[in-house]
Design a protein that fits this description.
about 230 residues, MetI-like fold, mainly alpha
C-alpha cells in the first residue's frame, strides 16, 4: 500500500468511526486531560512560588526544574514501572498496565514543564501589579490573585502546551500502560503497533487524528499567548 492509498483508507476508517480508532482516541484524550490537570495542580503553584519569591538557592531550583523538563519519557516510564511493578514499593496497588499508571507517569512528566512555564510567567510579570494592589488595600493573598488574573492568558497557553506534549507521548504510555486494546492503547502506542504489523491504514488514521489534535492545541496556545 503506497502513501496515497494509505491516506484514503485512513480517511475511510475515520469517516466510518472505526471502533479501534475511537477507542485509541478516547483513551489518549482521557489520560492526557487528567494528567494535564494533575500536573498543572502540582507544577503551577511550585513554579509561581519560585518565580515570585526571593530565597537562597532559587537559581539552583530553577536549574533543576528546567533540567527536568528535558527528562526522556522512557526514563520516567522506567521509574514508574519500577515503582509499580510487583517488587516495587507500590506494587501491591495493582496499578501497572492500567490507565491510572499512565496518568501517574504522565503527571510526573508534565509537572516540571508546568512549573517551569509558570515560573517564567511569574518572574516576568510586572512587580508593580502586586505593589499597586497592596497600595489599594488588598491583602497579600488578594494581591497574589490580582497577579494571577493578569497571567491567566499565559497560564492557559502553558496548559495547552503541556496537553500538547502529553497527547503525543509514547514512552510512558507504552511502558506502564502495556498497550492493551480497549483499555490502555493510545493513539501513539497504536500507531507504533499497527505500523509494525503492516496495518498502515489504521496507523495513518490515528496519525492524522493526532496531527489534527496537536494542530488545534498549538493554534489555541499561540492564540492565547498572542492575546496577552
Amino acid at each position: 500500500m503506497d502513501l496515497g492509498e494509505a491516506v484514503l483508507a485512513a480517511l475511510r476508517l475515520i469517516a466510518a468511526a472505526d471502533a479501534a480508532v475511537i477507542d485509541a482516541v478516547r483513551v489518549s484524550l482521557q489520560v492526557a486531560l487528567v494528567a494535564t490537570l494533575l500536573g498543572t495542580l502540582v507544577g503551577a503553584p511550585l513554579g509561581f512560588a519560585v518565580g515570585t519569591a526571593a530565597f537562597r538557592g532559587r537559581r539552583a531550583v530553577e536549574i533543576v526544574l528546567t533540567t527536568l523538563t528535558a527528562l526522556p519519557t522512557v526514563v520516567v516510564g522506567l521509574l514508574v514501572y519500577a515503582a509499580l511493578s510487583r517488587r516495587g514499593p507500590f506494587g501491591g496497588l495493582g496499578l501497572l498496565y492500567t490507565r491510572s499508571a499512565m496518568v501517574v507517569g504522565q503527571t510526573l512528566l508534565i509537572a516540571p514543564l508546568m512549573a517551569t512555564l509558570t515560573m517564567a510567567l511569574a518572574s516576568g510579570a510586572d512587580v508593580r501589579i502586586r505593589e499597586t494592589a497592596l497600595t489599594l488595600g488588598a491583602t497579600r493573598l488578594g494581591a497574589v490573585w490580582t497577579l494571577l488574573g493578569e497571567l491567566r492568558r499565559g497560564a492557559l497557553a502553558a496548559v495547552a502546551t503541556g496537553f500538547g506534549r502529553l497527547i503525543s507521548e509514547l514512552g510512558v504510555a507504552l511502558m506502564v500502560g502495556g498497550n492493551i486494546e480497549g483499555a490502555t492503547r493510545t493513539m501513539t502506542t497504536a500507531i507504533a503497533l499497527e505500523t509494525g504489523k503492516g496495518e498502515f491504514a489504521l496507523a495513518m488514521a490515528l496519525g492524522l487524528i493526532l496531527l489534527a489534535v496537536a494542530l488545534l492545541v498549538n493554534l489555541g496556545a499561540a492564540a492565547l499567548a498572542a492575546s496577552r
